[in-house]
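Bug #77: duplicate submission created two jobs. Keeping one. Sequence:
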Amino acid sequence: MTAERTADLSARIGEPLGETPWMRISQQNINRFGDLTGDTQWIHTDPYRAAHTPFGGTIVHGAYLLSLAITFAGQLLPAEGTSMLVNAGVSAARFRSAVPVDSQVCGSASIVSAEDFGDATLAEIRVAVHVKGQSKPATTATVRMVLHD
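Kept job's structure:
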């Protein structure tokens, strides 16, 4: 199965894998992420203070957007016959624009590479996190995923 999966993914290198559904990032989501990670900087968690910045309000953590990129990679990667997906790393992460609270975001992806990895397949997926109403992605990254039989 691994060799077949690697060949199938390799045949799709560069091909768009589609988009995830749109999701809204609320202030409650941002606050919970900040509490979990210890990143409670006011630009993310204090709407009153953040309103007086060039952003005009709180913004989503870059690490939150990177976490979503990993989630979106797993959602979009063709993984039929796979028992488990494991995140194996992230590279080339870029935060291109701030994402305001209550933005709707979605992910798009394409396969960069696929190779046999023992009894699994290692795939690199280029992911973009888009903000509704913006022409360019707010965040991009290359996510490495191991697909186990």
